[in-house]
Design goal:
The structure is a homodimer. By secondary structure, chain A is mainly alpha-helical. Helix content of chain A is 65%, strand content 4%. Chains A and B meet through α19, α20, α21, α22 and α25 of A and α19, α20, α21, α22 and α25 of B.
Chain lengths: 715, 715
């Protein structure tokens, strides 16, 4: 059967074409989503050795050299043994290499995140929980090994949970949450965190052992305790610290001064560490002067182990805070570099990449990571072009962990504390934000200060929450104190501006144009109404009462009239014609006016009474161009405005509403018989023209004349 | 000395005149402030017996009759003996008479406030704290007298603190705080509170004794406990309740049906109370059927006693919540009546009045008051004109307390619970808000529902705080999802509207006009930037990279050229003229364009490359008319936009900024050499005209022509 044979292939062809078409459409989609999830595939195959290799190598080595001291020093902040800081500088970097979208940031340990993890480990595993079983280690009865093992477990579990939060947020495309952390907030928070870092490291500098505190105000208690213990300062530790500090600061300053002349900054931190280790080893500082040293560093890597899920219940809040703060730092740095070098940093993919780095890291006893400002700047400035630099830096860390780690066992902890201190310089320089913000934006200064105070006093988790809440409240406050203004026309244009600010603008006689500087919603709706009443100078309550009285008097009069008329009708009195002529004349004028009032026809006669009372205002135009949404309260207030002003014979028009506002008004059932859609005007000028067409020609025949004589109402 | 004599009196006269003038100015001020603080002085002297006396008398008697059952019933909610509910219906009314500005509201006990006070008293004075000393009272070992005395003490102290809060807020003119309680929130809260009221009264209906719970979810636990105890129901109490409920509901429905025909509603609550008391007395329900009755009611008034200040520490949160909620209910009712009857209700004075009522009441063992919707409606509808009605109602309460109180000792508590139930009808009818809000405003519906759930689950204090926080967050959310749009011109006008919504509008070729529907601030600034990039279709990153590459290539080429030129200069090759002519021509066209680019003069040559890449867009106009303030983040983003677009040769203009926005931009140091104030335009149209003047005449000589051919860019 030919027909069948003939039709089949064509059908098949169609289907194949369809499939091809579908494939053509879906393959790029699939490809895009795979590349989106694994950005490494999009750039590594196209990696140009010629262009990038040298830069990445130099940069990788420089960053690797920074990773070593920072990793060990920040591990102290996290209250875990220094080697875990090195692990943290290794595994997550590799994961980020695969999933990250920023080419210049250096993932790894960071002071603020480390101190946040430290507050968790110290809270859940205080010294007092680990009474020593054998008195030989001589540390006042604390089983250091068990304590540190448990602390590592806590840090790793928190990190896994934090990573899972980040992955989840990234999957749900919740990258935008970071926008709640405005710049003043982040900077204030960093500065606050830096004070925590300093407070936590002072004990190493002075070689003392203050009590641990947790909860609000713990930093204050800690500082008090440190002051109390100052007489017990270990002179050896203090001397080591002072020497290290002086050397570090001096050489760092030199680095900054000769930035342009040096091919790469002097790795003074590494030099200090090596020198200090040597001095400590040969001077036997630990046993001679009781200077606390890093202690045993296990050689080689550890096998992965699952996190302790039972801990998650007690660390969930901290893990979430770490997730958010870590991401915030990461994305702000990433976006900065992205903008500078012209590539796109995908905020949701960054969240996933950071989450995977943390989750994977957590299985290998790492603690939470983010990008570090100091390292990222070095990575970029020494010529790093891609994340290959990160891999090279992690190789250096790996070599150290595998081969050289044990050499650092005699390193005094005080030196690590000093390295932490000098790295905080940038954060403390943020105090200069205060005068800058004082000049530029006082509200943001307040956010900065409140964040600092909250962070210092309430600690890093609750402090962050409180700061975000305050920061959001400032938005509310700002919209709660709008500037209300009466608009007037700029002569010769269709432009209507604030009469208070611009002297040349002229109010349109009989028309009040009212605008709020911000959107009207429930917290300022009442204010809007009050301001309208005040600015328009129309005492609506009084007018309404007057009208009511008049109405009832009129009714009474009508009744009397009726009665009298009945009597008169009986008596056939002659002078009726006289008085009726008078009232007829009145009503004629009224109806003449009415013909021109197309919209407020029913209230035409009341209009007259309203006018006579209030400088002949006949129209109120509400310029709603600043409104971005409407809520129930706004609809109600607007309805009341329409109802009340109509009652005293004043037309109300809305002008300049955005499309979404009109839609929301419609949905809310705002438009009805008494408020037709025809009271909406695209611009204030349209509304004014309409109003003058309706009312104007009665009082003043010429429209042009009206607009030029407009100052008369101001009397 | 004549001169001295002559001058002295005139000086004196001057001074007298000054003083008179000052007095003239200050006396009305003083008078106004005295009248403002004591509103009674402004209306009582002008009280017209003829107009008001009859209405006030009827209304006062009706309200007084309602006060009696409500006072006793709500006292059970507050967990104090019924007589204190009567006190609460007496003292505060008198104080409010003097200080209040609303003429129609009925101050006194109210279900929601009562249950809030009840939660405090039960939390601080649980049964378990009062083991019975003598077993004769047979109530399972609870010393009721001591417990109740302490509970009254707690309620009174909380009330005094709450009153002080209100006075303080009123003095500081903080009446606006109530605006944070939007209508959907208040209605959701009331409904949530009503469920608490029901849950707390069920025990009286069933005659059971469930355990007390406090803290979050306590209502759930309570309901579970009640269900567990249902088998132990006291049949006597249940029968009494059912009978009372049926009678109350039937007669109330009849009242509603025949509202117009009845001169005043049948006081069925009072009738039920009297009937129930008689039945209970003669049927001896208490001892025969173990039906719990009101018990001893002390005769006469009690002397005032100071509050127990030591309690304030533990009730401060609750007192504040009571202060805010009480005021919110009061002011919303007051404003409603004020608007209806055309008088002004001063929100701050109301706060002071309510605060004084509470403070004074607290000294006389009253608990917190506010206006009750049901009583206020009766007060108004039965003809009440002024607060004299309130005084009359309190006289009725006084007579009851002094003479008739003891008669109610045999009244079953179940009857009072039923009275509470039927009074909640209005609150439960608020569930009808759900379909109404679903239709009109989904965000407000969410606020309603979240408030209800928070109130039900988290109790009345934390629930209120959580609801307010959520309600504020909705404002943030709303401004976080703005509608971004590209504007086009309505042909023949100066109006620029959204191109997506209005088909007739036409984009101006080469000009992108961009607007956000809401103010830009830190939470949506990034979105703004992203939307601008997306909507404008200009990939700025790519263009910047291209430009950089071009620049470096240019440099390299220049260098090569230089080298070659040197070689060529040596070799004196002839064909240089040929190629240089070509490039000269190019640069000539470039400089021709430059002459017309007045503002972006320095970037003129780059402008060409930008244009060729992106459909010849030469200007971006940001319509900032919806912005109501700017923060640091916004300034930064705007600066970046200016910098980046300038770099690729696109001019950026700002249009329609409000005065305050321009001010804030200036203060923030936004305007500088590269961003002159001349890039600000009053309207979009001005900016478009300027842009076309600068760029337009090169491509298309006629401006009118451009505006009519404007659809060409859409290709």
């Amino acid at each position: 059967p030919m027909t069948w044979r003939g039709s089949r292939p064509s059908f098949a062809v169609h289907r194949v074409e369809d499939i091809v078409c579908v494939l053509r459409c879906s393959v790029p989609k699939l490809k895009r989503s795979v590349l989106g999830f694994l950005p490494v595939l999009s750039w590594l195959p196209r990696y140009s050795l010629r262009d990038n290799a040298l830069g990445d190598l130099t940069s990788g080595i420089s960053v690797g050299i920074m990773h070593l001291p920072q990793g060990m020093a920040y591990a102290l902040l996290a209250s875990v043994p220094p080697v875990f800081g090195l692990y943290t500088s290794f595994y997550p970097v590799l994961v980020y290499f695969i999933f990250g979208t920023s080419r210049h940031i250096s993932i790894g340990t960071f002071a603020v995140i480390s101190i946040m993890i430290g507050s968790v480990t110290e809270k859940l595993a205080p010294d007092s929980n680990f009474p020593s079983l054998n008195e030989t280690n001589g540390t006042g009865g604390v089983d250091l090994a068990a304590r540190d093992a448990y602390r590592v477990q806590i840090a790793a579990s928190t990190t896994v949970l934090c990573g899972l939060f980040q992955i989840l947020l990234g999957m749900m495309r919740f990258g935008f949450v970071v926008t709640y952390l405005s710049e003043p907030l982040v900077r204030g928070y960093m500065t606050g965190a830096a004070t925590h870092v300093v407070a936590s490291q002072l004990k190493y500098v002075f070689g003392i052992d203050p009590a641990r505190f947790s909860g609000p105000l713990s930093q204050v208690y800690l500082l008090i305790d440190i002051c109390r213990l100052l007489p017990e300062t270990n002179i050896g530790a203090l001397v080591v610290s002072l020497v290290a500090l002086v050397v570090l600061i001096t050489v760092k300053e030199l680095n900054t001064c000769y930035e342009k002349k040096l091919p790469m900054p002097i790795p003074i931190e590494l030099i200090v560490i090596i020198a200090a280790t040597l001095i400590s080893y040969y001077g036997d500082l630990n046993s001679q002067y009781n200077v606390s040293v890093v202690g045993e560093i296990p050689q080689g890597l550890k096998p992965p182990s699952p996190p302790d899920i039972s801990l998650w219940g007690s660390v969930v809040g901290d893990a979430f805070a770490v997730a958010i703060v870590g991401y915030a730092i990461n994305i702000s740095l990433g976006k900065t570099f992205g903008l500078k070098h012209g590539y796109k940093v995908d905020s949701n993919q960054e969240l996933v990449a950071l989450g995977l780095s943390n989750t994977a890291g957590g299985f290998f006893q790492c603690y939470a990571v983010t990008s570090s400002l100091s390292r990222s700047l070095i990575q970029e400035s020494t010529g790093g072009k891609t994340q290959v630099a990160g891999v090279i830096s992690s190789v250096i860390v790996l070599v150290t962990v595998l081969q050289l780690g044990t050499l650092f066992e005699e390193l005094p902890k005080a030196v690590l504390a000093c390295i932490v201190f000098v790295n905080l310089k940038g954060m403390f320089r943020q105090f200069l934000d205060i005068p800058a913000l004082w000049k530029s934006n006082k509200v943001d200064l307040m956010v900065w200060l409140v964040t600092l105070v909250c962070t210092v006093l309430l600690n890093l988790d609750i402090g962050l929450a409180a700061s975000i809440a305050f920061s959001l409240l400032t938005v509310i406050f700002r919209s709660q104190l709008p500037r209300y203004s009466i608009l007037g026309r700029v002569p010769g244009t269709e432009l209507y501006l604030d009469t208070d600010t611009y002297e040349e603008v002229k109010e349109i006689p009989g028309v009040i144009i009212f605008r709020s500087s911000t959107t009207m919603y429930y917290t300022n709706a009442e204010l809007y109404l009050d301001a309208l009443l005040e600015k328009s100078g129309i005492d609506i309550g009084k007018l309404l009462m007057k009208k009511k009285k008049k109405d009832s008097e009129q009714k009474r009069a009508d009744k009397k009239e009726e009665k009298r008329a009945k009597i008169k009708a009986k008596n056939q009195v002659k002078h009726i014609t006289l008085c009726s002529t008078g009232s007829d004349q009145d009503s004629e004028i009224g109806s003449y006016g009415d013909n021109h009032i197309t919209q407020a026809a029913s209230t035409g006669s009341e209009s007259e009474s309203g006018k006579s009372a209030d400088n002949s205002t006949h129209t109120i135009i509400l310029d709603l161009s600043t409104a971005s949404f409407v809520d129930t309260v706004t609809v109600k207030i607007l309805k009341n405005i329409f109802r009340d002003y109509k009652e005293i014979g004043i037309d109300v028009y809305l002008a300049g509403c955005q499309v979404c506002v009109v839609e929301q008004l419609s949905i809310a059932g705002f438009f009805c018989e008494s408020i037709p859609k025809s009271c909406l005007f695209a611009t204030v000028h349209d509304a004014v023209l309409h109003s003058l067409r309706v009312h104007g020609d009665k009082d003043r025949p010429q429209y042009e004349c009206v607009l030029d004589m407009s100052s008369t109402t101001k009397m």
